Amino acid sequence: MTRTRSARSGAPLGWEHLPAPDLRGRTVVMTGASDGLGREAALQLALWGADLVLAVRSRDKGEIVRSRVTAETGRPGAVRLVDLDLDDLSSVRAAAEAIGRETAGTGIDLLIHVAGLVTRRREETADGFERMLGVNALAPLLLTDLLLPSVRDRVVVVASHAHTFGRVDRADPHFRRGGWSLRAAYGRSKLVTMLWGLDLAEQLTATGSPVDLQLVHPGWVLTNLQNATGSDHLDALVTAASRPLAMTAQEGAASVLLAATQPLPSGSYLGPDGPGALHGRPTFLRRSPTALDRGLAREVAAWARAEVDGAGG
Ligand SMILES: NC(=O)c1ccc[n+]([C@@H]2O[C@H](COP(=O)([O-])OP(=O)(O)OC[C@H]3O[C@@H](n4cnc5c(N)ncnc54)[C@H](OP(=O)(O)O)[C@@H]3O)[C@@H](O)[C@H]2O)c1
Question: How far is the CA of 206 from the centre of ligand 1 (A)?
Answer without folding.
Answer: 31
